[in-house]
Structure formats: C-alpha cells, structure tokens
Amino acid sequence: MGDRTYPVRSSPDGNLDLDRCIAQLEKCQHLAESEIKQLCDLARDILGAESNVQPVRVPVTVSGDIHGQFHDLTELFRIGGPLPDTNYLFLGDYVDRGYCSVECFSLLLSFKVRYKERITLLRGNHESRQITQIYGFYDECGRKYGSQNVWKMFTDLFDYLPLTALVENKIFSQHGGLSPNIDWIDDVRKLDRIQEVPHEGPMCDLLWSDPDDRLGWGVSPRGAGYTFGQDISEKFNQANGLTLIARAHQLIMEGYNWSHEQQVVTIFSAPNYCYRSGNQAALMEIDEHLGTSFVQFDPAPRRGEPAIGQPPIEYFL
User: Fold this and answer.
1) How do residues 137-148 score in pLDDT, each as one tens digit?
2) Which of 32, 174, 236, 246 has the smallest number of CB atoms closer than 10 Å to its CB?
3) Residue numbers annotated as active site
C-alpha cells in the first residue's frame, strides 16, 4: 500500500528571498514573524509531498540531534560541507535545550525550501507541541517574538516532517528506533503522520525507542517507546532487506556508537550537549557504495549568545 496523501497549501506570497533569509540566519539573526509564516507555508508544500519513508540517495551525510546549538550547527556545516555541495539527512531534534532553536530550525527549513532535493529533515521526539512547552522552545519563541504565534507555526509544521528515511533501500533511518507494531517498512508507509506525536503506538515508538543490550522488547525508562534487543534488530533488517538502522536520540560521548553487532548505529551531533556534557559530536558519511565513515567534532566558539541562565531542566540525558 502506498503512502497517504496530505493536503498542502501554497504560500500566499512566493516572493520570499530565501538567499537573504539564509544569509541573515547564518549570522544567528532570527527572521521576522511574517517571513516565518511564508517560510512555513512554502515548506508545508514540500514536506507534505514527502513520504513517511522518504527515499534518500547516496552520497549523503547523516546528522543526529542538534538541540538549538546554533554555533555547533554552523560548525557541522563547516566540517561536513556546505549546501548544496553536500547532501544531508537530519534525524530530528532540532529544538529545545539550546539557546537558539529558532535560528537552527529556521535555517534548516530555509535550506529545505531552497535545496529540497539536497536535504532531508526527519521528525524527532522534540518536534512536538507538548515536549517543546517543557524544554525551552516555547519560551524561546515567546522571548524572541513577543507572542507564541511563531511557536504555533513551527509546531503545526512539525506534523508534516517525514517519520523515517530509507537510504538506497538499505539503510533505514529514524530518530528513535523500532516498534513492536511495525514488522515491515510498508507498515510505516500506512501511518497518518499529520498529528501531534501520540503518547503510544508505532509513530511514538519510531521517535522514542532505543536499542538495548537485553534481548526482546523492554519497557523504556523514558516513559514512551520501547527498548529493543539485537534479536529484534536482526529480524527487522533481515525481513526488510536492510544492512543497517541509523538513528539518533541518545547522548553518545564519542558522537557515534555501533550496537547489535553493527546492525544499529547511533549518531549524536550536539557537542558538549546542554553546554555542559563534555561529549564530542559526529556525522556519518555514506558514500556511493554504501560505505560508512564518521567525522567527529568538538564545540564551536559560542559568539553572541545571550546569557539567559541555565538550560532547561532535563528529563534525562
């Protein structure tokens, strides 16, 4: 069965100067509210046409969590290469925790509209109305725009982000992990993703689950999703003709980590997470032959960020 189709709306004003917007955002200067509205309208058309399992071609560079760390996102593009010269797959969690979620997501969204074939943006568990009201993005939007209008525009758009990607039909990518309700990739294609992330069920699991050393399915300490063992990963990969599951969602001190005898890789791309964790970040580069290599990087200098107190409270790292 094919993907559902979703209604999309055209932008009321197609005259948004994306190159100027990108140049402004690259200076860590947020856009005007009217520009955010145009950007979201344009992006909704593009994202609404994409699949729950968005196909991605190689070569491609895969990024894990960003979490509003703008200068580290700039460093990521410096190390991985600029768009449109490099193809990117981002695995979600663009917002919350860091101080510049507005600028990070605005920049990535501008790149998506400007170079839609060169960048794929998946949904993370933080691309959610409920989570962003707790971990910083809601407050940041109010502080920078004087109202929650921009927060509503962005969180409405989050519903359109694809849930997963499939790199050359061999590498299955999502933010979190697997689900006991999903045996086949086609099961993901049947989901209705245009909604807030549910508290349970397959859509929730894709964004919240984690690999584990224990076999089988387990109760997640996060309170959402599941833990899944090597037997689950091997069965899913074999049934679907996959070589690898590439995901994000977990702080990794070295920036990346293989698990389940290289059936699963976790990529984390926010160095010194929450400005205090001391971790490296990493990117995974997939070449034309589906070979993988990793580039690790350290935090960039944080220039011009406001001193606004401690980062938001953790549920856990």
Assistant:
1) 999 999 999 999
2) 32
3) 126
